[in-house]
Amino acid sequence: MAFCLQPFNRIEIYENGDVYNCCPPFVNNYSIGNIFKSNFDEIWNGDKVKELRNKILNSDFSLCSDLCNKKNETEYCEKTYIDTVEDYPEEISVSSDNTCNVRCRICRDENFKTPYVKENLEEEINNIWLPVFKNAKLLRFGCSGEPFASYKETLIIKMAAQKYPNLKFHFHTNAILPNEKLLKKLNVFDKIDTITVSLHSASRWTYNKIIRGGKWDKVISNLKLYSKMKQENHLRSFRMIFCVYEENYKDMKKFIGFAKKFNAVPEFWALRENNCTQVGKNFEKYSLINPEHKHHKELIKILNSKEFKDENVVLYPELKKLINKEN
After folding, report:
1. Model confidence over 259-318: pLDDT tens digits?
2. Which residues fall within 8 angstroms of residue 96, CB to CB, at 6 or more apart?
3. What are the DSSP calls for 145-201, one per residue?
4. Among 110, 232, 303, 306, which one is most buried in terms of CB atoms within 10 A?
């Protein structure tokens, strides 16, 4: 039977406290609880997560959306699982703050920064967040904002690294702020499993058009740092993200070589519909996966080029299904 491990060992927690077993759009926003409203023991083995686990145990992915890149490619699992899991999750994505230091065309139209009262925040982290991490092997930051631009998330990172010295971290970042000095200050330089950089471009010109408020030279400097870390085995994985849409698709093939120059895996996503930005609200105009888009056939041609036959190039389902499609 097909199987997915996510409901049994992984969660994502968002700013309002809602808990998911996967990226919310991938599970049709099916929340299993809220850490500010319930004890985590009640959430981790509550009725909602048991329902999801039971479905997966029966190879029923009806609660998952077609956006999921595992839904139709899930591996068979021989290990026996049950709907109740004694241990807390091993992998946790923390999306506690939407604060970011740039305005990316495909992400947000306005600057956003959350003010915090330090005393209350440290109490919240100690009493609510850190106990959830007690069995975690990997903490991931950066699903909803820039973790290194957030006072709250940098504090969670620092406190978690101090309390759980064996923890590993996965940072999804725009690569402007996390240099060697900052990573060492937070005591995570030698505790990073993965760095994922959202770049969406392979040239200064495209970058400046998409990443409003970006710092190209700082990004390049930090990409060199991450490349060196990967070469010296300080990183298990280094990835670069490219979200394809009308304003950057001509950089796609170039991006593959650009990522490899820094020892990174190039990963391509499609623009998501209704993502609340000016671009997202005009999905039909900007999204090349739309068959009616004037550049749709050109996108198919690009995806069927030799550069995309490399097994190390990652394509999300919306793009992958266009390979071998007639153009």
Report:
1. 999 999 999 999 887 677 888 888 889 999 999 999 999 999 999 999 999 999 999 888
2. 13, 14, 15, 129, 150, 152, 153, 156
3. S-GGG-HHHHHHHHHHHHH-TT-EEEEEE-SSS--HHHHHHTT-TTSEEEEEEE---
4. 303
Residues 6+ positions from 139 with CB-CB distance below 8 Å: 92, 93, 94, 133, 157, 160, 167, 168, 169, 170
The two tokens of residue 129 are 């967040």
Give the Cβ contact number of residue 36 at 10 Å. 11
- For the question of whether the overall pTM of this predicted structure is more than 0.90, the answer is yes
Q: How far apart are the first and last CA of the chain?
A: 35
The neighbour count for residue 276, using CB atoms within 10 Å, is: 11
If 0-12 CB within 10 Å is exposed, 13-18 middle and 19+ buried, where does residue 48 land?
middle
Q: Are 65 and 312 spatial neighbours (Cβ–Cβ below 8 Å)?
A: no
Separation CA 327–CA 279 (nearest Å) = 25
